[in-house]
């Protein structure tokens, strides 16, 4: 029969729905996958709990009710916990569950216990943070959003050491080969499960969908979700649960305080029936309540925790400002510069075209310094890669707020750092007239601007090259796709080396080119590139200037 399957418009949601479509086609049905337009773009920082309140499920259900589709495919986690059965709709099938595990993707494919001390790990839930903290309390957790590809692209020197994602999401998007380790933590209730819903009156559709039913998956997911419901919790809270089969079905659940210091884990057996599944969930929740779980799960206990660190597994890009916002490609890491443009209503895709490599034979000069000046996050990464400790008895300067924040995460006091975007001039201006030795760990091609400016103020300046930037072997597919299909109004290049990489890796296609300084513009012009605008200062005024140039071009 002819079937129209409704799906959310994200890549991961469409991949999930295509799985279902292929299963139905194998049974002889003619299936069309229909993206359902959402009222708002997916949220990355879910302060308003869009998924938890059921907005995503509601939009798919509206498409069912208005007749534009015959069935919809939900991520089971998008269906509100504890909701009553929809009188006009029915979950016709819960297919065999996909991989429920959480997966670690890391630089050099290091396992969790092998990550360096205070490694930066990207996460999308309190559940992951809390359980991983019990294994590695020293790690630094970073809230990450964006598509799967964008999150994975952040695992590189100077940004993230690793990121934790769901194995099912990686599997569906063809990225499972990047996994360094499947983590020994409990998943969110229903993780990896799909629910197919249709109108209760459409008996032929129900019968067709029922062929995909996996009763054991339905039973397992029901027990896990009922436990969460009876506990009075939702997906934002640090709670995990999993039903698995070891001759009989076993429900295992855990709740962890966000700091990892308190932990309750229990396991019970359960018969294979939907009735007993819900009873098992209720019994488990009661056992947790009797053990005082609400002392660290109650709203009061979590009052100081920012739920904005919650994401679903398939959010859009970090800069969802709507289709009418100007869109810039920024080939560098996330940081203050990208945030500054977003604050001005400019959509930004950050996608580095270079990767840092350690310089052989680098020498540690920091012990002889009065000041240690860090120009970038890459510098901090390189120093850590060498295994060198940053001396805490030295004065420290950082060339921008992102670099300063990374140093502070390592427990270091930063004495000088201009607010906002990185700027050599503003950092030089902060230094008092004086003397003493300033050591600058840096890339081997760092300009002499810092050295010249501080020397003029009376300092003995020593460069300490520790890394070198090289072009990526291959540009990420989503970047090339956007570049070749006119996704971007402009590209902003922030240094001469980044400009050279863009010239090497991206075909020229008439996209507006912006430069962050005159040195970068010079490289571009020498290559025959028309530079539409150059920031006159590397600060908020420069951001305003470039944002205005992009808006003017769009008129």
How would you briefly describe this protein structure?
The protein is α/β, with parallel strands linked by helices. Helix content is 33%, strand content 23%. It has five domains: 117 residues, D-Maltodextrin-Binding Protein, domain 2, CATH 3.40.190.10; 81 residues, D-Maltodextrin-Binding Protein, domain 2 (3-Layer(aba) Sandwich); 103 residues, Porphobilinogen deaminase, C-terminal domain (Double Stranded RNA Binding Domain); 109 residues, 3-Layer(aba) Sandwich (Rossmann fold), CATH 3.40.50.10090; 116 residues, Rossmann fold, CATH 3.40.50.
Number of helices: 19
- If classified by CATH, what would the architecture of the largest domain be? 3-Layer(aba) Sandwich
Instruction: Give me the side-by-side strand order of the main sheet.
Output: 2-1-3-10-4
Binned, the helix content reads 25-40%
The CATH class of the largest domain: Alpha Beta
Question: What class, by secondary structure content?
Answer: alpha/beta
Q: Beta fraction of the residues?
A: 15-25%
Count of individual beta strands? 23
| Low-pLDDT residue spans | 39-52, 307-312, 314-320
Tell me the name of the CATH homologous superfamily of the largest domain.
Periplasmic binding protein-like II
CATH topology assignment of the largest domain: D-Maltodextrin-Binding Protein, domain 2
**Rg of Cα set:** 26 Å
What does the average pLDDT come to? 87
Distance between the termini: 49 Å
* Main sheet makeup: 5 strands, mixed
Total domains: 5
């Amino acid at each position: 029969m002819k079937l129209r399957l409704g799906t959310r418009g994200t890549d991961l949601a469409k991949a999930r729905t295509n799985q279902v479509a292929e299963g139905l086609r194998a049974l002889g049905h003619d299936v069309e996958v229909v993206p359902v337009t959402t009222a708002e773009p997916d949220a990355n920082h879910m302060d308003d709990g869009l998924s938890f309140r059921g907005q995503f499920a509601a939009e798919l259900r509206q498409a069912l009710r208005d007749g534009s589709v015959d069935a919809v495919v939900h991520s089971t986690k998008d269906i509100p916990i504890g909701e009553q059965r929809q009188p006009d709709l029915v979950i016709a099938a819960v297919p065999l569950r996909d991989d429920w595990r959480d997966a670690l993707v890391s630089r050099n494919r290091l396992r969790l216990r092998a990550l360096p001390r205070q490694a930066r790990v990207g996460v999308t839930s309190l559940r992951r943070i809390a359980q991983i903290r019990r294994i590695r309390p020293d790690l630094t957790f970073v809230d990450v959003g964006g598509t799967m590809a964008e999150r994975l692209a952040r695992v590189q020197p100077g940004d993230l050491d690793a990121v934790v994602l769901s194995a099912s999401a990686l599997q569906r998007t063809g990225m499972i080969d990047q996994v360094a380790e499947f983590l020994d933590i409990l998943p969110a209730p229903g993780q990896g499960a799909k629910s197919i819903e249709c109108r209760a009156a459409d008996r032929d559709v129900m019968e067709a969908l029922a062929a995909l039913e996996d009763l054991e998956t339905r039973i397992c997911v029901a027990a896990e979700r009922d436990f969460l419901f009876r506990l009075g919790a939702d997906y934002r809270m640090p709670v995990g649960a999993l039903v698995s089969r070891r001759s009989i079905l076993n429900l295992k659940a855990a709740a962890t305080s966000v700091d990892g210091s308190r932990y309750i884990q229990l396991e019970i057996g359960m018969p294979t029936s939907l009735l007993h599944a819900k009873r098992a969930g209720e019994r488990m929740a009661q056992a947790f309540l009797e053990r005082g779980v609400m002392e660290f799960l109650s709203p009061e206990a979590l009052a100081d925790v920012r739920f904005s660190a919650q994401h679903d597994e398939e959010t859009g890009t970090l800069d969802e400002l709507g289709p009418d916002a100007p869109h810039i490609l920024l080939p560098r890491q996330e940081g203050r510069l990208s945030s500054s443009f977003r604050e001005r209503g400019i959509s930004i895709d950050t996608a580095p075209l270079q990767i840092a490599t350690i310089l052989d034979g680098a020498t540690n000069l920091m012990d002889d310094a009065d000041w240690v000046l860090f120009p970038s996050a890459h510098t901090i990464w390189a120093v850590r890669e060498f295994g060198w400790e940053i001396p805490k008895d030295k004065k420290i300067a950082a060339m921008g707020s992102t670099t300063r924040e990374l140093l502070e995460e390592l427990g270091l006091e930063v004495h000088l750092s201009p607010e906002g975007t990185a700027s050599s001039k503003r950092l030089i201006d902060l230094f008092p007239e004086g003397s003493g030795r300033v050591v600058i760990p840096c890339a081997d091609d760092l300009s002499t601007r810092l050295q010249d400016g501080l020397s003029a103020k009376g300092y003995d300046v020593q460069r300490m090259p520790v890394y070198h930037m090289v072009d990526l072997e291959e540009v990420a597919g989503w970047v090339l796709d956007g570049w070749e299909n006119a996704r971007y109004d402009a590209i902003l290049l922030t240094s001469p080396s980044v400009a050279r990489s863009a010239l090497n890796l991206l075909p020229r296609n008439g996209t507006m080119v912006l430069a962050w300084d005159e040195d970068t513009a010079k490289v571009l012009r020498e290559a025959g590139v028309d530079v539409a605008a150059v920031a006159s200062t590397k600060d908020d005024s420069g951001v305003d200037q470039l944002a205005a140039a992009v808006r003017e071009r769009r008129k």
